[in-house]
Amino acid sequence: MVFFTIVACEEIYKPDLEEVDDLLVVEAVLISNQTENDIYLYKTINFNREDNSYPSVSGAQVYLVDANNNQVKCEETAPGAYKLNYQLDANGSYYLYIEYAGERYQSGLQTVPELPHIDSVYTDFITKSVVVGASNSTDKITEVRGVQIYADMKHKGGVNHYRFYARKIVQYITYFDSIVLPSLFPQEFSDFHWSSFYPKGTYNIAGPQEFSTEKDITMHELDFFESDYSKYKPLDGLFAGWIYIVYQYGISEDAYNFYSDLNSQLDAEGKIFDPVYTQTKGNIQCVTDPEKVVLGNFEISSFSEKRFFLDYNKFKDTVRTLESIPFFYDIPERGHRKITKPDFWIPNFNNKTNE
Q: Taking phi first (over 0 means left), then psi (-120 to 50 degrees means alpha), and beta for anything else, what does residue 184 get?
């Protein structure tokens, strides 16, 4: 009876949290070598709010302003989405200016970075420790063998901070039998499949080592490919290598520090000294009320894309091929094509081979 009395008295504790005003969030990442860019404005929501959708900010006046105070207005194309139709000057500097609800907001001045460049890409077979599940549980750490791709960027006096994103496209082949007249016997044909995968977790950024005079960036980790690629294809699929697309952005040192702060927050594990959002400070402030907190950042980055074909033997820890792909076909997210290889297919695997 005592036990059931104790159980019956259990209640879920819901602390009363202070309600604060919704904060303006500015998502403004401009790619210098694009003729169209989008800027997004929305509001934060309180912790106890049942609706998890972030309200869009409509009706704002958004301008891109150059160092000579020439303005280019951004047109609202959807609630909270403002399009900039303008080609940035490769040698120019700009800031973002916003008017909304009687307040004026302005970012810091950003200079257009030069185009980024990777000097060399290479691989090595390594073993990585991967945390599965709770980050504080040592029982959830597992060892994974695979191919690590590295990149070197030499400092030539210009841009020296970078952000990377990527797309991995696994290729595999299945086989089917079909009768082609006038033959009465079935023939075997290939079915070419592909599927895309994207990185998860923190931002992949690179910059020179802190407190070091060395400006070159060496052995920066781009991506990791597990040796056991079975999970990325069906059992009857013959692995035919990866198409690896690297998106490289040249960014300012301020933007690099902003992403570094975001990574510290994303890596937080709920400990007492973990960073909070107010420690991730962007470069946008409210001019009419400097005490007002504004989240987000205004960033101008340059962009380049490289493509590689990667093939390796999972049993021998050997990379058979890592070669640059000179053509840039539009590749759907996933799909398959029977008999005839797609245009973008790397033609190294025409026939059956031993995995």
A: alpha
The secondary structure of residue 215, as a DSSP letter, is -
- Whole-angstrom Cα distance, residue 162 to residue 249? 5
pTM over 0.90: no
Gap between the Cα atoms of 341 and 191, Å rounded: 8
Contact 355, 320 (CB under 8 A): no
pLDDT digits (tens, 9 = 90+) for 301-325: 999 999 999 999 888 888 999 999 9
Q: Could you tell me what percent of the chain has a pLDDT over 70?
A: 83
Cα 331 to chain center, whole Å? 18
Single-letter amino acid code for the residue at 312: Y
Question: Could you give the CA distance from residue 151 to residue 305 in angstroms, rounded to a whole number?
Answer: 14
Q: Which residues contact 300 (CB under 8 A, 6 or more apart)?
A: 30, 32, 88, 94, 110, 111, 112, 113, 252
Rg, Å, the chain Cα set: 26
Helix, strand and coil in the chain, % to nearest 5: 10, 45, 45
Element (H, E) at 2: helix 2-8
The secondary structure of residue 56, as a DSSP letter, is B
**Beta-carbon neighbour count of residue 235 at 10 Å?**
5
pLDDT digits (tens, 9 = 90+) for 70-88: 999 999 999 999 999 999 9
- Scanning 194-284, the segments in alpha helix (DSSP H) are 253-266
CB burial of residue 71 (10 Å; 0-12, 13-18, 19+): exposed
List the end-to-end C-alpha distance of the chain, in Å, as a whole number: 65
Identify the residue whose tokens are 């995968």. 197
- SS3 assignment, position 257: helix
**Per-domain residue ranges of the chain:** 21-115+252-302, 120-247+303-338
